[in-house]
Write a structure and sequence with these properties.
Number of domains: 1
Order of helices and strands: EEHEHEHEHEHEHEHHHEHHHEEEEEE
CATH topology: TIM Barrel
Bound molecules: N-carbamoyl-L-aspartate, zinc ion
Radius of gyration: 19 Å
Number of strands: 15
CATH superfamily: Metal-dependent hydrolases
Number of helices: 12
Strand content: 15-25%
Shape: globular
Length: 342
């Protein structure tokens, strides 16, 4: 008999872009309605890089979550810059982690770090205060090699700061999975799309702007390595959707913004994938347990989310209350076998 329902305990999205303003109002409910929490990326314009801006952003997120605000915990991050020990200590009670973007490698990363070496005092303070470091690990080299070229920097950081918990965000390569296994203080997130697609899906036929993100999807053997680790229940691999909405005109015009909007399909599409491979029982670890164990998260809202085997068709787009802001979700128009029980 096939499974007809599946209950997930405290699902957490460990890498989520909620944006601000009208876009925030439009997209926040797609995550807040089916997750116990999410790690909120700080790459707004200007970036969230002070306690004050973090707290006010958290309030705007709460407001956008409406009735789900009590059941969905935004785990807030600061955009990496050089912070003093005092600044970080003051932020610590409200802060989940600091997110590092190398300068200019992705959306809104103009304020990113230019020299990792010059940031030693900040890393030391984070290590002392037990604040995790989340890293967008890409260089500005050739697009297919950016993640691989960054791996030695992860290794150096892992060795230099052995008590700093470092997350390799949205890994896309077999080589990254191998580095993950070499250091105790490294963990990783992986997105839904990188478990499903390769560069061929993005650019092998007609160019697919809604599959374009940073890091770009790689080779079949990379996807296989990521999928293999996720399906095997790799304890340091966590679901981080990197759901990154951009208005439709910014994706479909000339000069496509990077980011895949996967929030509306995240859990159903993962359930389908894990079920296809006969390892539905491994989903709980991937969507929550690995992250809670790694980060020792104890105050996540006790939320159970049930998925039902009832098919639905993913909308072609979602439009905000202003009637203008429109986003196209991952898998738009596709019929999925699992849905989240409302
Ligand atoms: C993200 C965004 O749009 O904010 N884009 C993306 O392609 N993933 C930024 C990021 O996480 O790199
Ligand atoms: Zn991201």
């Amino acid at each position: 008999m096939t499974t007809q329902s599946l209950t997930l305990d405290r699902p957490l999205d460990m890498h989520l872009h909620l944006r601000d303003g009208e876009m925030l109002s439009l997209v926040a409910p797609h995550s807040a309605s089916c997750l116990a929490g999410a790690v909120i990326m700080p790459n707004l314009v200007p970036p969230v890089d002070s306690l004050e801006s973090l707290l006010s952003y958290r309030e705007r997120i709460r407001a956008a979550c409406g009735a789900d605000a009590e059941r969905f915990q935004p785990l807030m991050t600061l955009f990496f810059r050089e912070y003093s020990h005092e600044e970080l200590a003051a932020a610590r009670p409200h802060l989940f982690a600091v997110k590092l973007y190398p300068h200019g490698v992705t959306t809104n990363s103009e304020a990113g770090v230019r020299s990792i070496e010059s940031a030693a005092a900040t890393f030391q303070a984070m290590e002392e205060l037990g604040i995790p470091l989340l890293v967008h690990g890409e260089t500005s080299g050739f697009v297919m090699d950016r993640e691989r070229e960054f791996l030695p920097i992860y290794e150096r950081l892992a060795r230099q700061y052995p008590r700093l918990k470092i997350t390799m965000e949205h890994i896309t390569t077999k080589a990254a999975v191998e580095v993950l296994d070499k250091y105790e203080n490294l963990a990783a997130t992986v997105t839904l799309q990188h478990l499903l697609i390769t560069l061929d899906d993005v650019a092998g036929g007609l160019l697919q702007p809604h599959l374009f993100c940073k890091p770009i999807a790689k080779r079949p053997e990379d996807r296989e390595a990521l999928l293999g680790a996720a399906l095997a229940g790799h304890p340091k691999l966590m679901m981080g959707s990197d759901s990154a909405p951009h208005p439709r005109h910014a994706k479909e015009g000339c000069g496509c913004a990077a980011g895949v909007y996967s929030a509306p399909v995240l859990l159903p599409r993962l359930a389908e994938l894990f079920e296809e491979h006969g390892v539905l029982e491994k989903l709980q670890g991937f969507v929550s347990d690995h992250a809670r164990a790694w980060h020792d998260l104890r105050n996540v809202p006790a939320r159970q989310v049930t998925l039902l085997k009832e098919s639905w068709t993913v909308p072609m787009n979602y439009t905000g209350a202003d009637g203008v802001t429109t986003v196209v979700p991952f898998e738009a128009g596709r019929t999925l076998p699992w849905r989240v029980r409302p």
